[in-house]
Write a structure and sequence with these properties.
By secondary structure, the protein is an alpha/beta fold. The protein contains 5 helices and 9 strands.
Length: 196
């Protein structure tokens, strides 16, 4: 995840607060990892308001998971499962610790590069994918292409995309459509329908 100087609204420095659901207001530690940028609480609040009709029972994929803020929030709000993919060892260890602390037996963490992990043929499909890569890497188009071509998406899956406001909106695979889009500070975030 790329760097964002502002802290997560409402959370003490070095802690991540789950906004709502069964783990509402639980504080989890954030790994001291260069460039780690948890999705801000106000963005998560808006995103999960958008997802409210579909989050219950959803299978989720949190790519570039970092703190796991998005996947853990999804589980807190009733998602069926969450798979987290993260390559930074410190972040992986901290995320696994948070999962143990929450007793989240429906969460799996893969210590892997997200692009390489997606390059496999999808063995499972996901209803919701959280896509929040380091802003500087700008791999959005490739990530979206792999999600579509490697069959990681369930029918009617939704993809959440977070990027720097100065970046161009990526060219999306055929049939994908932006349903919702907002900005907060230097972040633009979108919810995309992948149904063709």
């Amino acid at each position: 995840m790329s760097k964002q100087n502002r802290s997560t609204r409402g959370s003490p420095s070095g802690r991540l607060r789950i906004v709502a659901g069964k783990w509402r207001s639980r504080l989890l530690p954030v790994a001291d990892e260069p460039g780690l940028r948890p999705t801000a609480e106000r963005i998560r609040e808006t995103l999960f308001n958008w997802l409210a009709p579909v989050i219950e029972g959803a299978d989720c994929l949190d790519l570039f998971a970092g703190t796991g803020a998005l996947g853990l929030e999804a589980l807190s709000r009733g998602a069926n499962s969450a798979v987290f993919v993260e390559c930074a060892k410190k972040a992986v260890l901290r995320l696994r610790g948070s999962i143990r602390e929450l007793d989240a037996d429906n969460a799996v963490v893969h210590e892997a590069d997200a692009l390489a992990w997606l390059g496999q043929e999808g063995g499972e499909t996901f209803d919701i994918v959280f896509l929040d890569p380091p802003f500087a890497a700008d791999h959005y188009e490739e990530l979206c292409r792999l999600l579509a071509e490697r069959h990681w998406l369930a029918a009617g899956a939704l993809v959440y995309l977070e990027q720097d406001i100065d970046q161009l909106v990526p060219t999306l695979p055929a049939g994908w459509e932006i349903l919702r889009e907002k900005t907060a500070g230097n972040v633009r975030y979108s919810l995309i329908n992948t149904a063709s």
